[in-house]
Input
Amino acid sequence: MSGAQVTEETVKELCDLAQLTVELAKKAGADDAEVLVRDGSELTAKVRLGEPELVQEAGSRALGLRVLRNGKRAVTYTSDLRREALEALCAESVTLADFAEPDEYARPPDPRLLATQVPDLDLYDPRVAEVDAAWALRQAIAGEAAARKHDARVTNSEGGTWSRVLGATAFATSGGFVGGYRGSYASLVVEPLCDDTTDATNPKKRNGYWWTASRFLAELDDPDEVGQEAARRTVATLGSRKVETQECAIVFDPEVARSIVGTVFSVANGSSFWRKSSYLLGKEGELIASPLVTIIDDPTIRRAPGSKPFDGDGLPTRINPVVERGVLRPVLCDVYSGRKLGRESTGSAGRGIGGNPGPTTTNLVMQKGTLTRAQLLADTKRGLYVTNLMGFGFNPVTGDFSRGAAGFWIENGELTFPVSEITIAANFDEILKRIDAVADDLELRSATAAPTFRVSHMTLAGTSASA
Output
């Protein structure tokens, strides 16, 4: 049961379908039309305690249409791609646009700004498509078995999951753009469980995980290595306890550091700016983080998870600094949010099949520093090494940040004991400005990535001194 290869012919077929639909929409009365077509398949193989728990493979092909007419717009989508069905969709979409509210900013991009070529970023691996369910199950079984074998304290498991996604995307506009590309992505996740009986009166389950992922099969880590690392990380949490409420240094592991980087984008984009829902409003060109912080959105990295050759408006993608040595650069915009702000798009539009375009990221990466992780820890006299964040305690308008956390206590440069059931808090502006050390352990397994970094001090809420 291997997936069908996504070929260049598949991409051409989708491009032809997108162009046809643009023509049908114009014929139905649209002033302008934009058509997104996606063809994809997924395979998921999950095991638990050595036995298959789920094998699922599914495919889909869908088309999204946006029409603009007399300053109004409508968005529709369908999975029925017969010509007569598309003709009906186009007619219905034009009618819906007539009933919509006018929006002076909802105009197509200037045709002169549209991409004129689609660079090959090497985003597709045929070997990923050759994987069948039996092989995927063996990988998941091997990863989970390695975790259970690595340490006797691993007493249970949430399982091992091997999955892959194959897809092709095509986009066409009445302004003259048409282009497409294909992609693949595969991953393995292992999630061990331990019984924590450190406190006999209150035994707990401790869970952890580790994972590997890439667009290319040969770049995935060995399942044994993934399972062993998952076990090591899970067992290390046994005996977790609270610490006293205090202010201390906070070191973010890459697994949680990337969520901090993602939070930066949530308040540094054109949509949040024109909606006035960002504490960074009016701060472009100002120092909003430590000079050690440089965050770049780069869609051009070959083989990277978030790379793409054109954006959701049909504009060429480009490298955009978001924060440069602590200074906030022009925020990421699509055509619509750019117009609302009186500026050009940064080539950062994304869109789903059934939605309007909006600003998004590709490979949003905090650049690595010069210290090794070991050197950064050795230089930290006292504080918390955070490996897990819980909850969604962030106010984008004020910047207030408060999240549940777990990790390890740092004493004299060493990780000493596991910590849980605590909260870390500070204003996000202060968090970024207090970053005083950045490590060199950057890995691009996901589209948002960061190395280990340290914040000089935050409030840690745990137990009271008298507790």
User: Anything to note?
Assistant: The radius of gyration is 24 Å. The first strand starts at residue 32 and ends at 48. The CA atoms of residues 46 and 155 lie 18 Å apart. The mean pLDDT is 96.
